[in-house]
């Protein structure tokens, strides 16, 4: 049976390789510049132009964008510049340059989802998150590459630190654009591992919030109880302020009232106890990445955090055992919930969708309501295990991925580190603090459901502890 092939990479595209230094990343933070916007030392237009310069320089090698509109972005940045000078910014993100994953409806720009069925399609209405960020003054630079329907064939995007490597998926272009300093914030999604993993690969910060805390209206659906809006950004302050702007304007996905907390990132707070998790990903993790993670864990311990793990705590050992068994029921959840729209896409012709979509639909055909109910129950038991740590631990620490970005195009990497907190439905942050093989290696700080602000505060403390003098990265 013919299927839509993965588009090959352009062999004539320029190559790119640069060593990653977490103290000198390519990231372009925004929220921290508020004082310079007010007194005229800098402006949103200047920030935008610096990003456009970076796009001009690196986009031929990275291929993060599907489309962009620099003229509209410049008009919006000029309006934001005027508001800051007049002392009346709409929000802390007024003028922030952002990019939108091409699964998310954006008025005036096509939403094509890396599939020919939607070639040139204009939704004509903004998704809730895009609408909210426009209302908050953010500047829409363009649409970024996604894997096919956020679950299938890869697009052309490459890693901003090594163009022979994947940026991760499915939020490939958003992670690469932010990691390369082209934009401050990128909208992503996460149904299994599609925000935390690419952010870790590309040297960016990210927030995958409590499920439902950020509105998913206008995002092409995949799995209703799995889909999250993800935020990939240049700093913790940028992702938090963006999440709060969205929550303030459109709330969460009903009936969730929305992300709760201050308008700007909460002050860093030292945790008393963190649960170290190796997950199933540890068996895939090379020695250099293991060493980087162990060094980070040791540094946190030396700073006064009690680290509990499977070797010194029976409940952690039980949780780790449970995490080795999540793959099957996670795939059952996705296959069952994604029957629509995936079957509707396939109805256009089997050759119109890629192999991964055919595989998911074949899996769904083998399931029945009882099998789905079992998967839902398995997930709830995992959530109960995690919730039982409340009161005896402040959060969880693990990697974002099993090593740095892999040298592959069709495969975007293992999801074994990112998948657990998708299923738990609780907040997780990616911190670009570690290095392995001269490439970014993300550290993941995860929290308890509805405690996104508390997890952000812990993530801020971890960042400042592992990179002491550079609190703005």
Quick take:
The protein is α/β, with parallel strands linked by helices. The protein has helices spanning 34-39, 44-62, 70-85, 128-135, 172-179, 196-202, 236-250, 287-302, 314-323, 326-337, 339-346, 355-365, 369-387, 419-424, 452-466; strands at 65-68, 97-101, 139-144, 185-190, 205-208, 228-233, 273-276, 306-308, 395-399, 428-436, 439-446. The model has no long low-confidence stretch (mean pLDDT 97).
Task: Set down the secondary structure blueprint.
Layout: H1 34-39, H2 44-62, E1 65-68, H3 70-85, E2 97-101, H4 128-135, E3 139-144, H5 172-179, E4 185-190, H6 196-202, E5 205-208, E6 228-233, H7 236-250, E7 273-276, H8 287-302, E8 306-308, H9 314-323, H10 326-337, H11 339-346, H12 355-365, H13 369-387, E9 395-399, H14 419-424, E10 428-436, E11 439-446, H15 452-466
Parallel strand pairs: 2-3, 2-4, 7-8, 7-9
Antiparallel strand pairs: 1-3, 4-6, 5-6, 5-10, 9-11, 10-11
Helix pairs in contact: 2-3, 4-7, 5-6, 10-12, 10-13, 11-12
Structure description:
The protein is an alpha/beta fold and 473 residues long. It has a domain of 317 residues: Amidase signature (AS) domain (Amidase signature (AS) enzymes). The chain has 15 helices and eleven strands. The chain has an eleven-stranded mixed β-sheet with strand order 1-3-2-4-6-5-10-11-9-7-8, sandwiched between helices. Helix 8 links the parallel strand 7 and strand 8. Helix 4 crosses helix 7 and helix 5 runs parallel beside helix 6. The longest helix has 19 residues. The radius of gyration is 21 Å and the shape is globular. It comes from Neoroseomonas terrae. This is Amidase. Pfam families: Amidase (PF01425).
């Amino acid at each position: 049976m013919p299927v839509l092939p993965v588009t090959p990479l352009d062999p004539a595209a320029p190559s790119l390789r640069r060593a990653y230094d977490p103290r000198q990343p390519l990231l372009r933070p925004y929220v921290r510049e508020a004082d310079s916007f007010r007194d005229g030392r800098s402006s949103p237009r200047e920030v935008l132009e610096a990003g456009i310069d970076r796009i001009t320089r690196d986009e031929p090698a990275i291929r993060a964008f599907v489309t962009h509109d620099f003229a509209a972005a410049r008009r919006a940045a000029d309006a934001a510049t005027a508001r800051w000078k007049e002392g009346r910014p709409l929000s802390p993100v007024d003028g922030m340059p952002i990019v939108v994953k091409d699964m998310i409806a954006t008025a005036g720009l096509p939403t094509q989802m890396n599939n020919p069925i939607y070639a040139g399609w204009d939704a004509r209405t903004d998704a809730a998150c895009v609408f909210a960020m426009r209302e908050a003054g953010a500047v829409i630079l363009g649409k970024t590459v996604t894997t096919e329907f956020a679950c299938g064939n890869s697009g052309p995007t490459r890693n901003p630190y090594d163009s022979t490597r994947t940026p991760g998926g499915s939020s490939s272009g958003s992670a690469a654009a932010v990691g390369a300093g082209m934009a401050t914030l990128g909208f992503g999604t996460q149904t299994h591992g599609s925000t935390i993993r690419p952010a870790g690969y590309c040297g960016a910060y990210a927030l995958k919030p409590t499920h439902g805390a950020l509105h998913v209206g206008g995002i092409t659906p995949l799995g209703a109880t799995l889909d999250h809006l993800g935020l990939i950004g240049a700093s913790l302050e940028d992702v938090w302020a963006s999440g709060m702007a969205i929550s303030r304007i459109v709330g969460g996905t009903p009936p969730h009232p929305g992300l709760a907390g201050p308008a700007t990132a909460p002050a860093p707070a030292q945790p008393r106890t963190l649960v170290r998790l190796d997950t199933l990903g540890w068996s895939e993790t090379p020695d250099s990445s293991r060493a980087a993670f162990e060094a980070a864990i040791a540094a946190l311990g030396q700073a006064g955090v009690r680290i509990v793990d499977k070797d010194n705590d029976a409940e952690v050992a039980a949780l780790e055992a449970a995490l080795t068994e999540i793959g099957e029921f996670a795939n059952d959840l996705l296959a069952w919930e994604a029957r629509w729209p995936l079957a509707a896409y396939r109805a256009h012709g089997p050759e119109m969708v890629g192999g991964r979509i055919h595989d998911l639909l074949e899996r769904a055909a083998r399931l029945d309501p009882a099998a789905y109910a079992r998967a839902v129950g398995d997930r709830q038991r995992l959530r109960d295990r995690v919730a039982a740590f409340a009161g005896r631990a402040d959060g969880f620490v693990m990697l974002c991925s099993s090593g740095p970005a892999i040298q592959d195009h069709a495969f975007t990497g293992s999801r074994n580190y990112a998948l657990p907190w998708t299923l738990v439905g609780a907040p997780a942050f990616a911190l670009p603090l570690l290095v392995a093989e001269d490439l970014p290696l993300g550290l993941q700080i995860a929290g308890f459901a509805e405690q996104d602000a508390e997890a952000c505060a812990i993530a801020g403390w971890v960042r400042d502890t592992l990179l002491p003098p550079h609190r703005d990265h």
